[in-house]
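Appendix B. Raw example, untouched.
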Amino acid sequence: MNDFKPGLEGVVAFQTEIAEPDREGGVLRYRGVDIEELVGQVPYEKVWGLLVDESLEPGMPDPEPYEPASLTGNAPSDLQAETARLSSVWKLQKLVDIEDQQAHDDLARLSAQMMSIVAKAAAVHDGREPAPDDVVAQGGTAAEKFLLRWRGEADPDHVKALDTYWICTAEHGLNASTFTARVTASTGADCGAAMSAAVGALSGPLHGGAPARVLPMLDEVAKTGDPESYVKDLLDHKGKIMGFGHRVYRAEDPRSPILKRTAQELGSPRFDVAEALEEAALAELHNRKPDYVIATNVEFYSAVLLDAADVPPDLTPAMFACARVAGWSA
């Protein structure tokens, strides 16, 4: 009788050399390149190229002109619906009927357009019209163009925050959304269907929405000024400290220090509280499970960094999707 593996833990579903996480922590490589060598050195769209084409050049293209059918301002839902709609509008062919190059081109078009859709949905959420193409064209990078489309302006600190976050979360092997995209693609469906399905998986609060659950913890700690008591009380009541522990890593998530460093550099108003909570959580978790490593993961300082860029919590899953279009396409 076969053993049941909850969450596919320990099951090898496929092999990949696209992203190489070190289980013992310290490093995450994209196509053999340490992400520490990418953040702050090349923009996200070039990292898309590295992951998809194994080359920084030419990178992800700019989005072509497209008018969404209807945007509600709920970015994750808008993104899923509009990505599926693109299959029809662009007349995307089924994967079983096209060559690899055509699939690549479809994914490149979709990746760029999906980021634009999120920016437009975010603008609608804020009660304003998305900026026109001539304003967006003033941006030099994908992050700048995204913020111009969303807000009509691109604060350099916010550009740095988004670019860092997107690069750190662009790809990470067999997560739920990537698995969903691959299963959909394996049926021969078109690329729009696969990407839309991935967005659906990512929209769940236990995947793309997880960072949004960090901020309420920080708010509580800021009120009490006592992170140690907060952590102990939460664990005593069988609660979960969001942003700690990872199925892959048995040490600190290598993306976490990059996000933490950037949040500090940008003067995040939540940084001091976050660091105090992190220290209290790590100490208490070690006291309770000294033989089991539960360290800070990507979600914790992602929340702090996105907050520093004035990204509202309900936009978090869509921002994650903007990053992960690279991994899904690769």
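End of appendix B.
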